[in-house]
Amino acid sequence: MPNGGKIFKGEIEMMEAFNCVLCEKPMLPSSEIVACSFCLKRERADYVCPDGHYVCEECRVAAPDKIVRKTCEVTQESDPIKIAILLMKHPAIQMHGPEHHYLVSCSLLAALRNLNRFEIDGSAFDQAISRGKRILLGSCGLWGACGAAVGLGIAVSIATKATWTSDKERSLSMQATCEALSHIAKIGGPRCCKASVFAAIEAAAAFFEREFTVKFPSLEDPRPCRFRAINMECLRGKCPYWR
Amino acid sequence: MYKTWRLLDYSSTDPRINLAVNEAIFRSRYEGLSKDTLHLWQCGKSVIFGGTGSYKEDINQEECRRNGAEIVRAISVSSGVLYQDSGSLNFAVATNAAFFAKDGNPVLSAYQILNEGIAAGLKEYGAEVSADPDGIYVNNRRVSKALPKWFYDFLLFQGTICIDTDLKVCNEVIGTRLRSAEKESLTSLSLELNKKIPVEDVREAILHGLGEKLGIKFEKQGLTKDEQKLVDKLFRVKYGSDVWNVNGHEPFLVEMGKTAVEVFVAYPPTSACRKLIQIVNEAASDLQDEVKVMIWMRGKGIYQHGPYPQMSSALIGAQKQSVIPAVIINGELKFKDIPSKDDLRKAVLEAIAR
Questions:
Q1: Which of A54, A94, A119, B281 is the most exposed place for a label (fewest CB within 10 A)?
Q2: Does B286 sit within 8 Å of A61, measured CB to CB?
Q3: Cβ A61–B322 below 8 Å, yes or no?
Q4: Residue B259: exposed, middle, or buried by beta-carbon count in 10 A (0-12, 13-18, 19+)?
Protein backbone atom coordinates (compact mmCIF):
# COMPACT_ATOMS: atom_id res chain seq x y z
CA MET A 1 0.00 0.00 0.00
CA PRO A 2 1.53 3.36 -0.95
CA ASN A 3 2.98 5.53 1.79
CA GLY A 4 3.08 2.60 4.16
CA GLY A 5 -0.67 2.54 4.33
CA LYS A 6 -0.92 6.12 5.43
CA ILE A 7 -3.08 8.13 3.13
CA PHE A 8 -1.56 11.37 4.27
CA LYS A 9 1.97 10.63 5.38
CA GLY A 10 2.99 14.26 5.47
CA GLU A 11 -0.02 15.06 7.60
CA ILE A 12 0.83 12.38 10.16
CA GLU A 13 4.37 13.70 10.40
CA MET A 14 3.07 17.23 10.75
CA MET A 15 0.78 16.05 13.48
CA GLU A 16 3.56 14.66 15.63
CA ALA A 17 5.11 18.11 16.10
CA PHE A 18 2.96 20.57 18.01
CA ASN A 19 3.80 23.98 19.33
CA CYS A 20 2.31 25.29 22.53
CA VAL A 21 -0.55 27.68 21.81
CA LEU A 22 0.51 29.80 24.78
CA CYS A 23 4.24 30.16 24.33
CA GLU A 24 4.90 28.49 20.93
CA LYS A 25 7.60 26.22 22.31
CA PRO A 26 7.61 22.67 20.91
CA MET A 27 5.39 20.42 23.01
CA LEU A 28 6.72 17.17 24.41
CA PRO A 29 4.88 13.90 24.81
CA SER A 30 3.85 13.35 28.40
CA SER A 31 1.77 11.08 30.53
CA GLU A 32 1.97 13.13 33.72
CA ILE A 33 -1.03 14.48 35.58
CA VAL A 34 -0.99 18.20 34.95
CA ALA A 35 -3.35 21.14 35.30
CA CYS A 36 -5.01 22.70 32.27
CA SER A 37 -3.74 26.23 31.65
CA PHE A 38 -7.31 27.38 31.00
CA CYS A 39 -9.75 25.57 33.30
CA LEU A 40 -7.19 24.25 35.84
CA LYS A 41 -8.64 20.74 35.62
CA ARG A 42 -6.03 18.11 36.34
CA GLU A 43 -5.77 15.13 34.02
CA ARG A 44 -3.25 12.86 32.41
CA ALA A 45 -1.65 14.85 29.64
CA ASP A 46 -0.62 13.78 26.15
CA TYR A 47 1.50 16.82 25.27
CA VAL A 48 2.97 19.38 27.66
CA CYS A 49 5.24 22.28 26.80
CA PRO A 50 8.63 22.70 28.56
CA ASP A 51 7.12 25.58 30.57
CA GLY A 52 4.35 23.34 31.85
CA HIS A 53 1.53 24.68 29.68
CA TYR A 54 -1.18 22.15 28.90
CA VAL A 55 -4.65 22.38 27.38
CA CYS A 56 -7.03 19.68 28.50
CA GLU A 57 -9.04 17.75 25.94
CA GLU A 58 -12.29 19.41 26.91
CA CYS A 59 -10.84 22.89 26.50
CA ARG A 60 -9.28 21.97 23.17
CA VAL A 61 -12.71 21.37 21.63
CA ALA A 62 -14.57 24.06 23.57
CA ALA A 63 -16.54 26.72 21.74
CA PRO A 64 -15.43 30.33 22.29
CA ASP A 65 -18.10 31.15 24.87
CA LYS A 66 -17.36 27.97 26.82
CA ILE A 67 -13.64 28.58 27.00
CA VAL A 68 -14.16 32.20 28.06
CA ARG A 69 -16.58 31.18 30.77
CA LYS A 70 -14.54 28.26 32.09
CA THR A 71 -11.34 30.22 32.22
CA CYS A 72 -12.80 33.33 33.82
CA GLU A 73 -14.67 31.32 36.41
CA VAL A 74 -11.53 29.70 37.80
CA THR A 75 -8.75 32.15 37.15
CA GLN A 76 -7.02 33.68 40.12
CA GLU A 77 -5.58 36.46 38.00
CA SER A 78 -6.39 40.09 38.77
CA ASP A 79 -4.84 41.50 35.62
CA PRO A 80 -7.56 41.69 32.94
CA ILE A 81 -5.02 42.13 30.12
CA LYS A 82 -3.32 38.87 31.11
CA ILE A 83 -6.66 37.09 31.21
CA ALA A 84 -7.61 38.52 27.82
CA ILE A 85 -4.31 37.54 26.23
CA LEU A 86 -4.58 34.01 27.60
CA LEU A 87 -8.05 33.69 26.11
CA MET A 88 -7.08 35.21 22.78
CA LYS A 89 -4.34 32.63 22.39
CA HIS A 90 -6.87 29.82 22.49
CA PRO A 91 -7.57 28.37 19.00
CA ALA A 92 -11.30 28.89 19.51
CA ILE A 93 -10.84 32.66 19.51
CA GLN A 94 -10.39 33.80 15.95
CA MET A 95 -8.14 36.68 14.98
CA HIS A 96 -11.21 38.88 14.56
CA GLY A 97 -14.71 38.03 15.62
CA PRO A 98 -17.67 38.78 17.87
CA GLU A 99 -16.30 36.58 20.67
CA HIS A 100 -14.04 39.51 21.55
CA HIS A 101 -17.10 41.43 22.71
CA TYR A 102 -17.84 39.21 25.69
CA LEU A 103 -14.16 38.38 26.14
CA VAL A 104 -13.62 41.97 27.31
CA SER A 105 -16.54 41.83 29.77
CA CYS A 106 -15.57 38.47 31.23
CA SER A 107 -11.87 39.31 31.57
CA LEU A 108 -12.74 42.46 33.50
CA LEU A 109 -15.34 40.76 35.68
CA ALA A 110 -12.92 37.96 36.57
CA ALA A 111 -10.21 40.44 37.54
CA LEU A 112 -12.65 42.51 39.61
CA ARG A 113 -13.91 39.40 41.38
CA ASN A 114 -10.36 38.44 42.27
CA LEU A 115 -9.87 41.90 43.76
CA ASN A 116 -12.95 41.27 45.90
CA ARG A 117 -14.65 44.26 44.44
CA PHE A 118 -18.32 44.02 43.47
CA GLU A 119 -20.43 40.91 43.93
CA ILE A 120 -19.45 38.79 40.99
CA ASP A 121 -20.34 35.12 40.76
CA GLY A 122 -20.65 32.58 37.96
CA SER A 123 -23.92 34.04 36.75
CA ALA A 124 -22.12 37.31 35.96
CA PHE A 125 -20.19 35.56 33.21
CA ASP A 126 -23.36 33.98 31.85
CA GLN A 127 -24.96 37.40 31.67
CA ALA A 128 -21.90 38.98 30.08
CA ILE A 129 -21.79 36.29 27.40
CA SER A 130 -25.52 36.43 26.79
CA ARG A 131 -25.52 40.21 26.41
CA GLY A 132 -22.29 40.25 24.43
CA LYS A 133 -23.60 37.73 21.91
CA ARG A 134 -26.30 40.16 20.93
CA ILE A 135 -23.76 42.66 19.68
CA LEU A 136 -23.64 42.54 15.92
CA LEU A 137 -20.58 41.29 14.07
CA GLY A 138 -19.01 44.42 12.64
CA SER A 139 -20.93 46.74 14.94
CA CYS A 140 -17.85 48.95 14.99
CA GLY A 141 -18.22 50.05 11.43
CA LEU A 142 -21.92 49.37 11.05
CA TRP A 143 -23.22 50.90 14.27
CA GLY A 144 -20.35 53.15 15.26
CA ALA A 145 -20.02 51.10 18.42
CA CYS A 146 -17.16 48.64 18.71
CA GLY A 147 -18.30 45.51 20.53
CA ALA A 148 -15.17 45.56 22.71
CA ALA A 149 -16.15 48.99 24.02
CA VAL A 150 -19.73 47.88 24.60
CA GLY A 151 -18.21 44.87 26.39
CA LEU A 152 -16.76 47.27 28.94
CA GLY A 153 -20.18 48.89 29.36
CA ILE A 154 -21.64 45.43 29.93
CA ALA A 155 -19.01 44.70 32.58
CA VAL A 156 -19.81 47.95 34.41
CA SER A 157 -23.52 47.26 34.15
CA ILE A 158 -23.17 43.78 35.63
CA ALA A 159 -20.76 44.89 38.34
CA THR A 160 -23.07 47.74 39.40
CA LYS A 161 -26.27 45.78 38.68
CA ALA A 162 -27.46 48.53 36.35
CA THR A 163 -30.63 48.32 34.31
CA TRP A 164 -32.52 50.75 32.15
CA THR A 165 -34.30 52.03 35.25
CA SER A 166 -31.11 52.76 37.14
CA ASP A 167 -29.73 56.21 37.60
CA LYS A 168 -26.01 56.62 38.22
CA GLU A 169 -25.20 52.98 37.39
CA ARG A 170 -26.84 53.36 33.99
CA SER A 171 -24.89 56.54 33.32
CA LEU A 172 -21.65 54.93 34.42
CA SER A 173 -22.20 51.99 32.06
CA MET A 174 -22.65 54.34 29.14
CA GLN A 175 -19.77 56.56 30.22
CA ALA A 176 -17.47 53.56 30.31
CA THR A 177 -18.50 52.52 26.81
CA CYS A 178 -18.04 56.07 25.63
CA GLU A 179 -14.49 56.29 26.95
CA ALA A 180 -13.52 52.95 25.47
CA LEU A 181 -15.06 53.93 22.13
CA SER A 182 -12.97 57.07 22.09
CA HIS A 183 -9.77 55.08 22.68
CA ILE A 184 -10.64 52.55 19.98
CA ALA A 185 -11.76 55.14 17.44
CA LYS A 186 -8.38 56.86 17.65
CA ILE A 187 -6.59 53.69 16.50
CA GLY A 188 -8.28 53.64 13.13
CA GLY A 189 -9.10 50.66 10.98
CA PRO A 190 -9.68 48.36 9.34
CA ARG A 191 -10.41 45.99 12.25
CA CYS A 192 -8.51 45.05 14.65
CA CYS A 193 -10.22 43.11 17.42
CA LYS A 194 -6.99 42.55 19.35
CA ALA A 195 -6.20 46.26 19.46
CA SER A 196 -9.80 46.99 20.42
CA VAL A 197 -9.59 44.56 23.34
CA PHE A 198 -6.38 46.15 24.61
CA ALA A 199 -7.75 49.65 24.20
CA ALA A 200 -11.03 48.78 25.94
CA ILE A 201 -9.28 47.23 28.92
CA GLU A 202 -6.85 50.13 29.24
CA ALA A 203 -9.82 52.50 29.18
CA ALA A 204 -11.48 50.26 31.78
CA ALA A 205 -8.47 50.50 34.09
CA ALA A 206 -8.60 54.29 34.10
CA PHE A 207 -12.37 54.27 34.46
CA PHE A 208 -12.53 51.90 37.42
CA GLU A 209 -9.77 53.75 39.23
CA ARG A 210 -11.46 57.09 38.77
CA GLU A 211 -15.06 56.09 39.44
CA PHE A 212 -14.64 53.26 41.95
CA THR A 213 -11.08 53.73 43.30
CA VAL A 214 -10.40 50.22 42.04
CA LYS A 215 -6.88 49.87 40.81
CA PHE A 216 -5.74 46.72 39.04
CA PRO A 217 -2.47 45.91 40.79
CA SER A 218 -0.72 45.33 37.52
CA LEU A 219 -1.61 45.64 33.88
CA GLU A 220 0.57 43.69 31.53
CA ASP A 221 1.83 45.85 28.71
CA PRO A 222 0.33 44.29 25.58
CA ARG A 223 3.13 45.78 23.47
CA PRO A 224 4.46 44.36 21.28
CA CYS A 225 1.26 42.62 20.26
CA ARG A 226 1.64 38.83 20.35
CA PHE A 227 -0.67 38.43 17.40
CA ARG A 228 0.96 40.72 14.88
CA ALA A 229 2.92 38.00 13.13
CA ILE A 230 -0.17 35.95 12.39
CA ASN A 231 -2.62 38.77 11.80
CA MET A 232 -2.97 39.07 8.05
CA GLU A 233 -4.58 42.47 8.46
CA CYS A 234 -2.23 43.89 11.09
CA LEU A 235 -2.22 47.67 11.08
CA ARG A 236 1.47 47.57 11.88
CA GLY A 237 2.97 50.98 12.63
CA LYS A 238 -0.45 52.56 12.69
CA CYS A 239 -1.41 50.47 15.73
CA PRO A 240 -0.31 51.70 19.16
CA TYR A 241 0.17 48.09 20.25
CA TRP A 242 2.38 47.02 17.38
CA ARG A 243 5.56 47.67 19.28
CA MET B 1 11.30 36.24 -26.28
CA TYR B 2 8.05 34.35 -26.93
CA LYS B 3 6.41 32.19 -24.31
CA THR B 4 4.71 29.00 -25.47
CA TRP B 5 1.06 28.50 -24.67
CA ARG B 6 -1.02 25.44 -25.42
CA LEU B 7 -3.66 26.00 -28.07
CA LEU B 8 -6.55 23.67 -27.40
CA ASP B 9 -8.62 23.52 -30.53
CA TYR B 10 -11.43 21.32 -29.28
CA SER B 11 -15.13 21.76 -29.77
CA SER B 12 -17.97 19.58 -28.64
CA THR B 13 -21.45 20.03 -30.05
CA ASP B 14 -22.60 20.10 -26.43
CA PRO B 15 -21.83 23.46 -24.79
CA ARG B 16 -21.90 21.81 -21.37
CA ILE B 17 -18.92 19.69 -22.32
CA ASN B 18 -17.09 22.75 -23.62
CA LEU B 19 -17.54 24.45 -20.27
CA ALA B 20 -16.39 21.30 -18.50
CA VAL B 21 -13.27 21.46 -20.68
CA ASN B 22 -12.72 25.07 -19.60
CA GLU B 23 -12.86 24.14 -15.95
CA ALA B 24 -10.63 21.12 -16.50
CA ILE B 25 -7.88 23.16 -18.16
CA PHE B 26 -8.20 25.76 -15.39
CA ARG B 27 -7.73 23.17 -12.65
CA SER B 28 -4.90 21.62 -14.57
CA ARG B 29 -3.23 25.02 -14.81
CA TYR B 30 -3.47 25.94 -11.16
CA GLU B 31 -2.36 22.49 -10.10
CA GLY B 32 0.74 23.10 -12.18
CA LEU B 33 -0.04 20.19 -14.50
CA SER B 34 -0.23 22.14 -17.71
CA LYS B 35 1.00 25.34 -19.29
CA ASP B 36 -1.02 28.47 -19.97
CA THR B 37 -3.78 27.52 -22.38
CA LEU B 38 -6.04 29.15 -24.92
CA HIS B 39 -9.13 27.11 -25.73
CA LEU B 40 -11.07 28.07 -28.86
CA TRP B 41 -14.39 26.46 -29.50
CA GLN B 42 -17.66 26.70 -31.32
CA CYS B 43 -20.98 24.92 -31.09
CA GLY B 44 -24.70 25.35 -31.60
CA LYS B 45 -26.94 27.81 -29.80
CA SER B 46 -26.41 28.20 -26.12
CA VAL B 47 -26.73 30.72 -23.35
CA ILE B 48 -23.86 30.81 -20.93
CA PHE B 49 -24.38 32.76 -17.77
CA GLY B 50 -22.09 33.76 -14.96
CA GLY B 51 -21.84 31.67 -11.80
CA THR B 52 -23.43 34.28 -9.58
CA GLY B 53 -26.24 35.05 -12.00
CA SER B 54 -29.89 34.15 -11.65
CA TYR B 55 -31.22 31.35 -13.83
CA LYS B 56 -34.74 32.73 -13.45
CA GLU B 57 -34.13 36.42 -13.84
CA ASP B 58 -31.17 36.74 -16.19
CA ILE B 59 -32.40 34.36 -18.87
CA ASN B 60 -35.62 34.10 -20.80
CA GLN B 61 -36.11 30.35 -20.59
CA GLU B 62 -39.13 30.32 -22.81
CA GLU B 63 -37.21 31.99 -25.63
CA CYS B 64 -34.32 29.60 -25.08
CA ARG B 65 -36.68 26.66 -25.48
CA ARG B 66 -38.27 28.20 -28.53
CA ASN B 67 -34.91 28.83 -30.15
CA GLY B 68 -33.36 25.53 -29.05
CA ALA B 69 -30.65 27.20 -26.99
CA GLU B 70 -29.06 25.15 -24.20
CA ILE B 71 -28.60 27.03 -20.92
CA VAL B 72 -25.34 26.44 -19.07
CA ARG B 73 -23.91 28.08 -15.99
CA ALA B 74 -20.21 28.93 -16.11
CA ILE B 75 -17.88 29.24 -13.15
CA SER B 76 -17.39 32.95 -12.78
CA VAL B 77 -16.98 35.63 -10.16
CA SER B 78 -19.51 37.77 -11.99
CA SER B 79 -22.97 37.48 -13.41
CA GLY B 80 -23.70 38.35 -17.04
CA VAL B 81 -25.11 36.42 -19.93
CA LEU B 82 -23.36 35.35 -23.12
CA TYR B 83 -25.25 34.05 -26.10
CA GLN B 84 -23.35 32.12 -28.68
CA ASP B 85 -24.19 30.18 -31.83
CA SER B 86 -22.41 28.91 -34.92
CA GLY B 87 -21.60 32.52 -35.83
CA SER B 88 -19.66 33.04 -32.61
CA LEU B 89 -16.14 32.15 -31.65
CA ASN B 90 -15.69 31.25 -28.00
CA PHE B 91 -12.47 31.42 -26.08
CA ALA B 92 -11.17 30.45 -22.69
CA VAL B 93 -7.81 31.48 -21.30
CA ALA B 94 -6.32 29.63 -18.32
CA THR B 95 -3.26 31.41 -16.98
CA ASN B 96 -1.54 32.96 -13.99
CA ALA B 97 -2.04 36.72 -13.71
CA ALA B 98 1.71 37.08 -13.12
CA PHE B 99 2.05 36.49 -16.85
CA PHE B 100 0.69 39.98 -17.44
CA ALA B 101 3.05 41.73 -15.06
CA LYS B 102 5.25 44.11 -17.01
CA ASP B 103 8.74 44.53 -15.62
CA GLY B 104 7.62 42.86 -12.43
CA ASN B 105 4.81 45.36 -11.80
CA PRO B 106 1.29 43.97 -11.80
CA VAL B 107 -0.89 45.15 -14.64
CA LEU B 108 -4.04 46.95 -13.67
CA SER B 109 -6.32 44.53 -15.38
CA ALA B 110 -5.52 41.19 -16.91
CA TYR B 111 -8.93 41.39 -18.59
CA GLN B 112 -7.94 44.48 -20.53
CA ILE B 113 -4.69 42.94 -21.73
CA LEU B 114 -6.49 39.84 -23.00
CA ASN B 115 -9.24 41.88 -24.64
CA GLU B 116 -6.63 44.10 -26.27
CA GLY B 117 -4.88 41.02 -27.63
CA ILE B 118 -8.08 39.75 -29.21
CA ALA B 119 -8.91 43.28 -30.43
CA ALA B 120 -5.53 43.44 -32.14
CA GLY B 121 -6.60 40.45 -34.19
CA LEU B 122 -9.96 41.98 -35.09
CA LYS B 123 -8.25 45.18 -36.21
CA GLU B 124 -6.79 43.23 -39.12
CA TYR B 125 -10.24 43.50 -40.72
CA GLY B 126 -9.91 47.28 -40.83
CA ALA B 127 -12.50 47.78 -38.14
CA GLU B 128 -12.48 50.56 -35.54
CA VAL B 129 -11.79 48.26 -32.59
CA SER B 130 -11.26 49.14 -28.96
CA ALA B 131 -11.04 47.18 -25.73
CA ASP B 132 -11.41 47.70 -22.04
CA PRO B 133 -11.66 45.35 -19.06
CA ASP B 134 -15.38 44.86 -19.77
CA GLY B 135 -15.19 43.86 -23.40
CA ILE B 136 -14.24 44.47 -26.99
CA TYR B 137 -16.00 47.03 -29.15
CA VAL B 138 -16.29 47.71 -32.85
CA ASN B 139 -17.44 51.24 -33.68
CA ASN B 140 -18.09 51.63 -29.92
CA ARG B 141 -20.55 48.76 -29.89
CA ARG B 142 -19.81 45.56 -28.01
CA VAL B 143 -18.77 42.44 -29.93
CA SER B 144 -17.25 40.50 -27.09
CA LYS B 145 -17.74 39.89 -23.42
CA ALA B 146 -16.17 37.48 -20.98
CA LEU B 147 -16.80 35.91 -17.59
CA PRO B 148 -13.74 35.78 -15.33
CA LYS B 149 -13.04 33.23 -12.61
CA TRP B 150 -10.18 33.50 -10.16
CA PHE B 151 -8.42 30.95 -8.04
CA TYR B 152 -5.91 33.05 -6.12
CA ASP B 153 -3.58 34.38 -8.83
CA PHE B 154 -4.90 32.05 -11.51
CA LEU B 155 -7.41 33.33 -14.01
CA LEU B 156 -9.94 31.57 -16.22
CA PHE B 157 -11.28 34.07 -18.74
CA GLN B 158 -14.20 32.63 -20.70
CA GLY B 159 -15.80 34.71 -23.41
CA THR B 160 -17.49 34.88 -26.74
CA ILE B 161 -16.89 36.99 -29.84
CA CYS B 162 -19.86 37.83 -32.04
CA ILE B 163 -18.54 37.31 -35.55
CA ASP B 164 -21.78 36.58 -37.35
CA THR B 165 -23.99 35.84 -34.37
CA ASP B 166 -27.77 35.94 -34.66
CA LEU B 167 -28.34 39.07 -32.56
CA LYS B 168 -32.11 38.78 -32.77
CA VAL B 169 -32.03 35.49 -30.89
CA CYS B 170 -29.39 36.90 -28.59
CA ASN B 171 -31.66 39.72 -27.50
CA GLU B 172 -34.62 37.39 -27.09
CA VAL B 173 -32.90 34.96 -24.77
CA ILE B 174 -31.47 37.52 -22.37
CA GLY B 175 -33.76 38.12 -19.41
CA THR B 176 -35.64 41.35 -18.91
CA ARG B 177 -33.47 42.38 -15.99
CA LEU B 178 -30.39 42.61 -18.18
CA ARG B 179 -31.97 43.22 -21.53
CA SER B 180 -31.87 46.98 -21.87
CA ALA B 181 -28.24 47.26 -20.83
CA GLU B 182 -27.07 44.45 -23.08
CA LYS B 183 -29.29 45.07 -26.07
CA GLU B 184 -28.28 48.65 -26.67
CA SER B 185 -24.66 48.05 -27.43
CA LEU B 186 -24.49 44.52 -28.81
CA THR B 187 -23.35 44.00 -32.37
CA SER B 188 -21.35 41.58 -34.49
CA LEU B 189 -18.23 42.00 -36.57
CA SER B 190 -20.09 41.06 -39.77
CA LEU B 191 -22.82 43.61 -39.03
CA GLU B 192 -20.36 46.42 -38.43
CA LEU B 193 -18.27 45.62 -41.48
CA ASN B 194 -21.35 44.97 -43.56
CA LYS B 195 -20.01 41.69 -44.88
CA LYS B 196 -20.00 38.07 -43.82
CA ILE B 197 -16.79 37.16 -42.01
CA PRO B 198 -15.90 33.44 -41.77
CA VAL B 199 -15.29 32.43 -38.18
CA GLU B 200 -12.31 30.36 -39.25
CA ASP B 201 -10.50 33.45 -40.54
CA VAL B 202 -11.14 35.29 -37.30
CA ARG B 203 -9.64 32.42 -35.35
CA GLU B 204 -6.30 32.88 -37.15
CA ALA B 205 -6.46 36.67 -36.76
CA ILE B 206 -7.02 36.35 -33.03
CA LEU B 207 -4.14 33.94 -32.61
CA HIS B 208 -1.96 36.39 -34.44
CA GLY B 209 -3.22 39.37 -32.40
CA LEU B 210 -2.84 37.65 -29.05
CA GLY B 211 0.51 36.25 -30.03
CA GLU B 212 1.94 39.64 -30.92
CA LYS B 213 0.34 41.54 -28.06
CA LEU B 214 1.30 39.08 -25.34
CA GLY B 215 4.45 37.64 -26.84
CA ILE B 216 2.98 34.15 -27.14
CA LYS B 217 3.71 31.30 -29.46
CA PHE B 218 0.84 28.81 -29.64
CA GLU B 219 1.43 25.08 -29.78
CA LYS B 220 -1.54 22.97 -30.77
CA GLN B 221 -2.12 20.21 -28.20
CA GLY B 222 -5.03 18.15 -26.96
CA LEU B 223 -6.31 17.43 -23.49
CA THR B 224 -4.16 15.29 -21.23
CA LYS B 225 -5.53 11.99 -19.95
CA ASP B 226 -6.20 13.50 -16.53
CA GLU B 227 -7.97 16.46 -18.07
CA GLN B 228 -10.16 14.21 -20.20
CA LYS B 229 -11.06 12.16 -17.15
CA LEU B 230 -11.92 15.34 -15.30
CA VAL B 231 -14.06 16.60 -18.17
CA ASP B 232 -16.09 13.40 -17.98
CA LYS B 233 -16.51 13.78 -14.24
CA LEU B 234 -17.37 17.48 -14.38
CA PHE B 235 -20.01 16.80 -16.99
CA ARG B 236 -21.48 14.01 -14.91
CA VAL B 237 -21.58 15.78 -11.53
CA LYS B 238 -21.88 19.41 -12.54
CA TYR B 239 -22.40 20.75 -16.04
CA GLY B 240 -24.80 18.02 -17.06
CA SER B 241 -26.91 18.61 -13.97
CA ASP B 242 -29.71 21.01 -13.11
CA VAL B 243 -28.34 21.15 -9.58
CA TRP B 244 -25.54 23.30 -10.99
CA ASN B 245 -27.08 24.94 -14.01
CA VAL B 246 -30.36 25.90 -12.37
CA ASN B 247 -29.54 26.13 -8.67
CA GLY B 248 -25.85 26.97 -8.79
CA HIS B 249 -24.91 24.21 -6.32
CA GLU B 250 -21.69 22.41 -7.11
CA PRO B 251 -19.82 19.51 -5.52
CA PHE B 252 -16.70 20.49 -3.62
CA LEU B 253 -13.98 18.96 -5.74
CA VAL B 254 -10.31 19.62 -5.19
CA GLU B 255 -7.25 19.30 -7.41
CA MET B 256 -8.17 17.41 -10.59
CA GLY B 257 -11.63 16.49 -9.43
CA LYS B 258 -10.84 14.50 -6.31
CA THR B 259 -13.51 14.13 -3.70
CA ALA B 260 -12.49 16.16 -0.67
CA VAL B 261 -12.61 14.65 2.79
CA GLU B 262 -11.98 17.44 5.29
CA VAL B 263 -11.37 16.38 8.85
CA PHE B 264 -11.61 19.16 11.41
CA VAL B 265 -9.79 18.43 14.66
CA ALA B 266 -8.48 20.17 17.75
CA TYR B 267 -4.95 21.43 18.15
CA PRO B 268 -3.24 19.39 19.46
CA PRO B 269 -5.68 16.63 18.45
CA THR B 270 -7.51 15.06 21.36
CA SER B 271 -7.67 11.29 21.80
CA ALA B 272 -11.04 11.33 20.01
CA CYS B 273 -9.53 13.35 17.14
CA ARG B 274 -6.69 10.85 16.80
CA LYS B 275 -9.13 7.97 16.76
CA LEU B 276 -11.08 9.70 14.00
CA ILE B 277 -7.95 10.29 11.95
CA GLN B 278 -7.06 6.62 12.28
CA ILE B 279 -10.53 5.62 11.11
CA VAL B 280 -10.31 7.98 8.13
CA ASN B 281 -6.93 6.50 7.28
CA GLU B 282 -8.29 2.96 7.42
CA ALA B 283 -11.44 3.81 5.48
CA ALA B 284 -9.87 5.79 2.68
CA SER B 285 -6.20 4.88 2.29
CA ASP B 286 -6.84 2.71 -0.80
CA LEU B 287 -8.81 5.50 -2.50
CA GLN B 288 -6.02 8.00 -2.97
CA ASP B 289 -6.62 8.28 -6.69
CA GLU B 290 -10.14 9.52 -6.08
CA VAL B 291 -9.98 11.12 -2.65
CA LYS B 292 -7.97 13.87 -1.00
CA VAL B 293 -7.95 13.82 2.78
CA MET B 294 -7.11 17.08 4.53
CA ILE B 295 -6.80 17.37 8.26
CA TRP B 296 -7.58 20.88 9.42
CA MET B 297 -6.43 21.72 12.92
CA ARG B 298 -8.34 24.46 14.66
CA GLY B 299 -6.48 27.72 15.08
CA LYS B 300 -3.63 26.86 12.71
CA GLY B 301 -4.79 29.17 9.97
CA ILE B 302 -5.89 28.73 6.39
CA TYR B 303 -2.43 28.03 4.98
CA GLN B 304 -1.85 24.78 6.84
CA HIS B 305 -2.33 22.95 3.51
CA GLY B 306 -0.24 25.13 1.27
CA PRO B 307 -0.38 28.55 -0.35
CA TYR B 308 -3.67 27.98 -2.19
CA PRO B 309 -6.10 26.78 0.46
CA GLN B 310 -9.43 25.34 -0.56
CA MET B 311 -11.95 25.06 2.23
CA SER B 312 -15.56 24.12 1.80
CA SER B 313 -18.21 26.34 3.31
CA ALA B 314 -19.19 23.41 5.50
CA LEU B 315 -15.69 23.35 6.98
CA ILE B 316 -15.81 27.08 7.59
CA GLY B 317 -19.18 26.56 9.27
CA ALA B 318 -17.77 23.79 11.47
CA GLN B 319 -14.93 26.10 12.50
CA LYS B 320 -17.27 28.93 13.39
CA GLN B 321 -19.59 26.66 15.34
CA SER B 322 -16.76 24.70 17.00
CA VAL B 323 -18.01 21.35 15.71
CA ILE B 324 -15.03 19.23 16.71
CA PRO B 325 -14.26 16.70 15.51
CA ALA B 326 -16.07 16.89 12.20
CA VAL B 327 -15.88 15.06 8.88
CA ILE B 328 -16.92 16.93 5.77
CA ILE B 329 -17.19 14.97 2.55
CA ASN B 330 -17.67 16.67 -0.77
CA GLY B 331 -18.54 19.92 0.96
CA GLU B 332 -21.22 18.37 3.19
CA LEU B 333 -20.91 17.98 6.94
CA LYS B 334 -21.36 14.21 7.27
CA PHE B 335 -20.24 13.36 10.78
CA LYS B 336 -20.13 15.44 13.92
CA ASP B 337 -18.69 12.66 16.04
CA ILE B 338 -16.67 9.48 15.54
CA PRO B 339 -18.24 7.32 12.84
CA SER B 340 -17.55 3.65 12.37
CA LYS B 341 -15.04 2.78 9.68
CA ASP B 342 -17.81 1.15 7.62
CA ASP B 343 -20.11 4.18 7.82
CA LEU B 344 -17.29 6.49 6.87
CA ARG B 345 -16.18 4.34 3.94
CA LYS B 346 -19.76 4.08 2.73
CA ALA B 347 -20.12 7.85 2.82
CA VAL B 348 -16.86 8.34 0.93
CA LEU B 349 -17.76 5.78 -1.72
CA GLU B 350 -21.16 7.37 -2.19
CA ALA B 351 -19.54 10.74 -2.67
CA ILE B 352 -17.11 9.34 -5.25
CA ALA B 353 -19.91 7.64 -7.15
CA ARG B 354 -22.10 10.73 -7.28
A1: A119
A2: no
A3: yes
A4: buried
